[in-house]
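Q: You know discrete backbone vocabularies at least as well as I do. I have my own habits and do not want them to colour yours. No explanation is needed for now; the record alone will do.
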Amino acid sequence: MTAHSAWLTCMAGCDVRLDVTSAVYRCPRCQGLLDVVHDEHALRDRSAAAWMKLFDDRYKRTQWPYGSGVWGKLEWVMPMIPDDLIVSMDEGGTNLFWAERYARELGLSDLWVKLCGNSHTGSFKDLGMTVLVSVVRLALRRGLKVKAIACASTGDTSAALAAYGAAADLPVVVLLPRGKVSTAQLVQPLANGAKVLALDTDFDGCMEIVQRLAEEGIVYLANSMNPLRIEGQKTVGVEIVQQFDWQVPDWIIIPGGNLGNAYALYAGFRMMKQLGLISRYPRLCVAQAESANPLYRAYAERRKTLDPITAKATLATAIQIGNPVSFPRAVRALDEMNGVVEQASEEELAEAAARADRTGMYTCPHTAVALAALEKLVARGDIQRHQRTVVVSTASGLKFTEFKVGYHERALPGLSSARANAPVVLPPDYGKVVDAIVA
């Protein structure tokens, strides 16, 4: 069988081919974004049916490293990495939750939530970070010299980088916007030994600085501007189809901040279609918070270009991004997948989270943005009752206790908290307890 390989190339079409271990994050000719390209000829040595069987045989098994939802698809992700350099924490393989009761309330019959937060550090960012850190180990073996792997983050990226960096015994630096991440998210990189720099700026300000550090060769850039992250994250789309016995859903809805995840979904579906595993794409909806909605504005104005904004405060802190690096990638994904963009106000996302939680979920505010978008698409009739729909939940609700407590204590400014459920405080009196139960 032909050896599999992958390399970096320019998304804009420049005649550029770079090794995946190159510490280069933009096209050296046009400064556009880079993409990972696989040798499709080599991949066609195995039939679509054979790929499905191989992936199914490996799925959640114990043979290293193939039990991982990412590395079980190694040939499609990063085939040149030796097994001894792979840094994996059994990422992927997350629950595709049948949201039966929530769907019934919306008038749907086939709604699923892909719980990517059921991962080692509690978010989908693990899927990309396992690939990036593994490639960095190979690059270091080949002579790469940097002080640390670094990222700008609003929480989840820093947690994933810190954990995988610690597992690989590599130094990690994290730039966070001070006071704009949850306590649970802040403590994760601290606990894993990362050097955390809390800057008095927003995510976009942190991103500007970390890009300069990378350009000057001081650090290796771990943000999703780096296409290696996309390679791991694209397995979400492949895994969803695999969990449906290789059937394609009708819609996928995903929250969008820096927008790499939208392109990652497309990349996974594109690869399946190119190799004959599927014959069509699902429709894509990228959901943004109204307070940080540059993609939504461009979509509403029929623009293909980014007009950066200053993102306002939002409960969905991880997507509080006004100048998303992967904007061109998201536009391409939307074009190819007949996509739409929707937004959610603070009230809409808070109530969507509470409504979903009442049906058994425990929803992070970013997933709630996607759920609010879902509710709008259903109300408009864009999503029909029997269409199979998947909402990608990007993080665990356990990371956002302040959001949950604030909602149920009616302490979130400007929000009604219509479904608040505060504890009932009583004296230790049996009669009063009975009264409270039967009331």
The chain has a mean pLDDT of 96. Residues 125-141 form the longest helix (17 residues).
